[in-house]
Task: inverse folding
């Protein structure tokens, strides 16, 4: 039987943006700030997705992922996110570290390829040993109204993932409205997504607070309806520690503290980590380090 | 409350997720895994032991000093005197003299210049005003900083713009100021209510004698300082302190041409009775029992925010509060489950902490009134749902509360509680929603939540309420008129309409 989208509540644009802005008013100070910085590092999917990625670049990123700073108190990040061809390099470097290897399969970032090609890409990437697959949904089919096809594709990719965790990228910047984001979130979760993710980082706007809030609310309703835990990953555009803890505040007050773990929440980012490290030093020593003392990886 | 059942579906094949599933526990845990550290705003501005009346441009000592108390700590904030008949008379005379000798005949552009200056100076001193407002009133700094003070400035700036355009406000008519306005304002938005009253009166060329509420006199004294600094001529605004007796002296003073009162319906009726036959103008902005109507096609998650903004904003000390929730029966369980989760994240406590959502009840007397009505709600058989959160040992605090199983005859459905207490009722059809919403002696505000524009407009048209919000609640703008129907009073404040009570419109 073909998939039918269940009724989902509508989203009011003005009100949801107001609510999202309210989370930025939480004042995160002293001990709360230190905890937020540690949470943030542990939840980062440290990402490099460039045509110019080389084994050397990925290797440096992996080293940084495992030990982001000289201070041994700084935890390692959740995962390194790379293109499928770099999975082998990342795996070798990260072996035994606890840092996961995530890879963007399914003709990232557009998704505009044949389903069997995308499925094959997923299978091969998982065979290489990737722990997590970040797929993109078929926005062409979505915008053309073929919801069932989007659902079935995600479901078959989920199957192809086998033991690997599946993060489903909605590319919210291409969906146009919050209502579409809410519906697409529902479809992805119904099709078996372990995480839903806002963006590829290749389209602007990428992650925003209100779009993430809409997705968190979809996760909440799905949890109540089915008991199934789905994780959330905003990605793209999150560059500062302050932005990161605004997301954490939103997660805490929408899904509760149980979601404040890398198993349920990730931040897809590349430059965020260095800002967090600056703030970490600031919190530890009372003054800012020069950015020159941080690695650019 | 059962878990939200928005749609019953079986997990898709392959979606079981193995160990990730938590089959039976579907509660969200709003715990302390990441507690917010205290983030208190500090008061670095001196507060004097005493502040006098403000008469003819100067602070003047008086008799009958009484204390204003910080409701969050029960500590004395400052003292103000009680104005007797002589003081009130002096204030009215000062206002009359300022009216006749300078303000009435000052070119509108000049009046506007001073009002603009006042608005800008409020913005410059916004942090100070917000902190002092929270200390004296008990409202969270988040609200005094982000809502009250910005709106106060906006109100002065808005009416500054009208000062030199009065002859275009009502095309075809000629306009003139009325004279001396006697104004009595409540404690729930001390500065904002002062701005609502003073700004239009001054823009239109009137002078003012105003009495702030006896529990919240502090920020008015700062506003007086700003008036002086901004170059407002002496006597244009005069402030007399005191409780109800002083208010009575002021509104019944024969030298007053126009009375504006914001407060309880009970007192409003007394004032109207006293002014009958005197020919003096009167506007009343009184109580309310606003209905927040949520239809089954509403954006539910945002409607929850509207409920929160409607009843838990400013501890529910809002005359236009959405103190009745009317929810369509087929989404009532889902909505209330969401409301429970949202309520669990509310933070009650120190008003000066930037993370506090709900501060202190303004006075012991108000707390007792809330206690009494909540007890009545339980006695009459309604089901109470209250956030089980810690509250400070000292000070006047009340936990956010809502009642289900409320019938139209319950006191909590009919009387204004003026606290963080919501009465929830269900309806079946739009007609029933309209009937329930209008079945109240009040008529100040209403909110409608629906994704359907046509429904928003048709229901809004059927509301006997002065302000109707669509998919939002407690949203204010100086350009938008505000006022009541029925026992919520008459006259409009804000916008072009807000000029009318302060103008003689002829021809």
Result:
């Amino acid at each position: 039987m073909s998939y039918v989208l269940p009724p989902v509540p509508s989203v009011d644009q003005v009100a949801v943006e107001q609510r999202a802005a309210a989370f930025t008013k939480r004042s995160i100070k002293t001990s709360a700030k230190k905890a937020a910085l540690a949470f943030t590092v542990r939840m980062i999917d440290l990402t490099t997705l460039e045509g110019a990625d080389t084994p050397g670049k990925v290797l440096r990123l992996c080293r940084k992922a495992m030990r982001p700073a000289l201070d041994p108190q700084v935890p390692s990040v959740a995962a390194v996110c790379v293109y499928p061809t770099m999975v082998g390099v990342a795996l070798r470097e990260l072996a035994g570290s606890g840092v996961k290897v995530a890879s963007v399969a399914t003709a990232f970032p557009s998704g505009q390829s044949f389903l069997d090609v995308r499925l094959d890409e997923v299978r091969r990437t998982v065979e290489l040993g990737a722990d997590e697959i970040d797929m993109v949904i078929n926005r062409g089919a979505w915008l053309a109204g073929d919801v069932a096809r989007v659902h079935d594709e995600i479901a078959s990719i989920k199957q192809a993932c086998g033991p690997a965790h599946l993060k489903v990228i909605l590319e919210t910047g291409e969906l146009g409205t919050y209502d579409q984001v809410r519906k697409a979130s529902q479809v992805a979760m119904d099709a078996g997504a372990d995480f839903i993710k806002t963006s590829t980082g290749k389209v602007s706007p990428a992650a925003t607070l209100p779009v993430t809030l809409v997705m968190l609310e979809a996760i909440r309703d799905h949890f109540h309806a089915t008991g199934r835990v789905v994780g959330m990953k905003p990605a793209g555009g999150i560059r500062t520690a302050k932005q990161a803890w605004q997301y954490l505040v939103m997660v805490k007050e929408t899904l509760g503290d149980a979601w404040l773990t890398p198993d349920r929440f990730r931040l897809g980012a590349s430059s965020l980590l260095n800002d967090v490290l600056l703030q970490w030093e600031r919190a530890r020593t009372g003054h800012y380090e020069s950015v020159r003392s941080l690695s650019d990886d | 409350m059962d878990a939200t059942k928005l749609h019953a579906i079986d997990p898709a094949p392959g979606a079981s997720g193995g160990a990730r599933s938590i089959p039976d526990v579907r509660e969200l845990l709003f715990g302390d895994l990441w507690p917010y550290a205290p983030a208190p705003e500090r008061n670095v501005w001196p507060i004097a032991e005493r502040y006098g009346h403000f008469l003819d441009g100067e602070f003047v000592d008086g008799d009958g000093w009484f204390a204003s108390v910080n409701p969050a700590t029960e500590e004395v904030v400052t003292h103000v005197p009680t104005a007797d008949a002589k003081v009130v008379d002096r204030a009215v005379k000062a206002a009359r003299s300022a009216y006749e000798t300078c303000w009435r005949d000052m070119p509108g552009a000049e009046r506007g210049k001073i009002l603009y200056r006042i608005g800008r100076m409020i913005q410059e001193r916004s942090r100070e005003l917000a902190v002092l407002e929270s200390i004296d009133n008990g409202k969270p700094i988040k609200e005094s900083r982000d809502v009250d003070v910005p709106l106060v400035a906006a109100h002065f700036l808005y009416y500054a713009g009208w000062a030199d355009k009065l002859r275009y406000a009502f095309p075809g008519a000629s306009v003139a100021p009325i004279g001396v306005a006697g104004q009595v304002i409540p404690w729930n938005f001390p500065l904002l209510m002062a701005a609502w009253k003073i700004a239009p009166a001054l823009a239109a060329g009137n002078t003012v004698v105003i009495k702030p509420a006896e529990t919240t006199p502090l920020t008015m004294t700062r506003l007086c300082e700003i008036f002086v600094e901004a170059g407002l001529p002496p006597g244009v605004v005069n402030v007399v302190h005191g409780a109800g007796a002083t208010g009575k002296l002021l509104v019944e003073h024969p030298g007053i041409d126009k009375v504006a009162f914001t407060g309880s319906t009970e007192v409003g009726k007394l004032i109207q009775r006293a002014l009958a036959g005197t020919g003096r103008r009167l506007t009343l902005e009184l109580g309310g029992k606003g209905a927040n109507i949520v239809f089954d096609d509403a954006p539910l998650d945002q409607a929850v925010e509207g409920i929160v903004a409607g009843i838990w904003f400013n501890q529910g000390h809002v005359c236009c509060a959405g103190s009745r929730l009317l929810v369509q029966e087929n989404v009532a369980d889902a909505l209330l489950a969401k409301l429970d989760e949202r309520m669990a994240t509310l933070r009650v406590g120190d008003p000066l902490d930037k993370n506090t959502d709900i501060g202190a009840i303004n006075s012991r007397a108000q707390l007792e009134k809330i206690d009494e009505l909540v007890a009545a709600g339980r006695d009459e058989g309604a089901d109470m749902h209250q956030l089980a959160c810690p509250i400070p040992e000292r000070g006047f605090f009340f936990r956010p509360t809502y009642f289900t199983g409320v019938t139209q005859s319950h006191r909590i459905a009919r009387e204004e509680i003026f606290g963080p207490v919501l009465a929830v009722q269900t309806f079946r059809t739009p007609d029933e929603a309209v009937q329930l919403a209008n079945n109240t002696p009040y008529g100040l505000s209403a909110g409608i939540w629906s994704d359907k524009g046509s429904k928003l407009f048709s229901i809004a048209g059927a509301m006997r309420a002065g302000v109707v919000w669509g998919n939002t609640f407690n949203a204010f703008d100086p350009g938008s008129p505000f006022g009541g129907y029925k026992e919520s009073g008459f006259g409009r404040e804000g916008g072009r309409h807000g000029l009318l009570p302060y103008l003689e419109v002829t021809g």
In short: Residues 141-162 of chain B form the longest helix (22 residues). Chain B has 15 helices and 19 strands. Confidence is low (pLDDT under 50) at residues 1-23 of chain B.
